[in-house]
Amino acid sequence: MVYISFNFYLFVVIALVFYYICPMKMRWCILLLADIMFYLSVCKSGLWILFATVLVSYVAAVLLERGHGTGQKLLLAGAVILVIVPWFLARNGNFESYHLSVPIGISFYTMQIIAYMTDVYRGEIAPQKNLAKYALFVTFFPQILQGPIPRYEQLGQQLFQGHLFDEDKFTRGFYLIVWGFFLKLVIADKAAVIVNAVFDNFPAYSGGYIWFASILYSIQLYADFLACTTLAQGVSMLFGIELAQNFGRPYFAVSVKDFWRRWHISLSSWLRDYVYIPLGGNRKGKWRKHLNLFTAFLVSGIWHGADLKYLVWGGIHGFYQVAGDGLGGFKGKIYAWLKIGPDSKGKRWFEQAGTFLLVNFAWIIFRADTLGIGLKMIKHMFSEFTPWIFFNDRIFTLGLGWKEMGVLLLAVVLLFAVERKQEQGIVVSEHIMRQKLPVRWLLCMVGICTVMVFGTYGFGFEAQDFIYGGF
């Protein structure tokens, strides 16, 4: 029952009906029941593992509130280890060897629980004494699959207090769901056809194809992850609950450091608050700062998977940031020599293009089947570059004809236009909400029809799994 299935939205409708007809003080119970039913439907054998993790962290947090001595540090360390063990076993395939399902969203809720216990230890929040309410916080079904990774102070009370029906929020939530479907079915899944064709059999393709497929993968990954987050935000908003933003238009970033302020914001902030700063942050000198930064990105790589390629991918981003800090003055001299002003559009465009290319090369390592294949693909991009494939129709032999390719191109242009408006401070959804009701619903129907007609155009109705659902 994934976020783009008919069964999921039938489930959401039933949950909404019971949520809004129940007394206000009991509405959190409906959400908890919905969480349990959702988890039973997608990962029944993993429910006991999730419950055990919730119980351990609940007890630990209650005990951690009592003080901050050496005993409390040992308690926190022990609780974190116990919470990480299921995630570690899942990462190394141990669940499958015992014919157990990997608990859905385990990477996300593990980080969520670690943040919660750490915040309790630091005295930043009080532990939730009601076990059922704490379980609701950990298992809230719209965001458990793929985040964002919530903080207790941001989400907790929203879940427990109950909400009156708010037509404005409900409508905005519906619009977000339509936009999420568009991102997933019209952009991500269409781009996946070409990406899979090239990455799964790269020796058959020259460098030009790899350039094209790698850029499409950067777009696919972003549209796919943004789609899932948008759907989670939309469904949550139907209940009157607002999830934190997880993206800030990352491909408009002017540096890799800026990219990580915008990409998967909840993960970036988690790494900052629970890895980088505890290691010392930038408080112990430049070299220690760079070591801490590099370590945080290695942790990011490990979080994404046990394969060596993910560790290298994290290391690449750590290297990018360390190098970016060290080359700041040199870049300034280059811009001065080229007579490019510090606040000029040319400088910004140059930095955005350079950042995208650096991130794109790292994504190739991330997507390739192995580290060795990823490195070979990057090599072929330069040693066997074949730009003429873009002018002789060979590009249409990768699984999408010219019509499907045209639809994909137009969809990407629309996404770029929306993101650019938001980059300029214009929130498109708020602009739509200010229109008259007939205009709003006309736009909504156009969006639905676009997804139904073009989202499945040419290759069936079955969408692929969300990429980040596998982490």
Q: How would you sum up this structure, described in words?
A:
- Helix 2 crosses helix 7 (131-139), helix 10 (167-199) packs parallel to helix 21 (437-454) and helix 11 crosses helix 18 (371-383).
- 70% of the residues lie in helices and 0% in strands.
- With 471 residues, the chain is an all-alpha fold.
- It is globular, with a radius of gyration of 23 Å.
- Residues 457-461 have low confidence and may be disordered.
- It has 21 helices and no strands.
- The two termini are 18 Å apart.
Q: Which runs of at least 5 residues are low in confidence (pLDDT < 50)?
A: 457-461
Mean pLDDT: 86
Taken in chain order, the helices and strands follow as HHHHHHHHHHHHHHHHHHHHH
Proportion of beta-strand residues: under 5%
Structure in a nutshell:
It is built from 21 helices and no strands. It has 471 residues and is mainly α.
Topology of this structure?
Blueprint (H helix, E strand, L loop, with lengths): L5 H16 L5 H17 L3 H18 L5 H22 L2 H4 L8 H17 L8 H9 L1 H4 L7 H10 L5 H33 L7 H32 L17 H7 L2 H12 L9 H19 L3 H19 L1 H10 L7 H23 L3 H13 L18 H22 L4 H6 L3 H18 L17
Helix pairs in contact: 1-2, 2-7, 3-4, 3-6, 3-7, 4-6, 7-9, 10-11, 10-19, 10-21, 11-17, 11-18, 13-14, 14-15, 15-17, 17-18
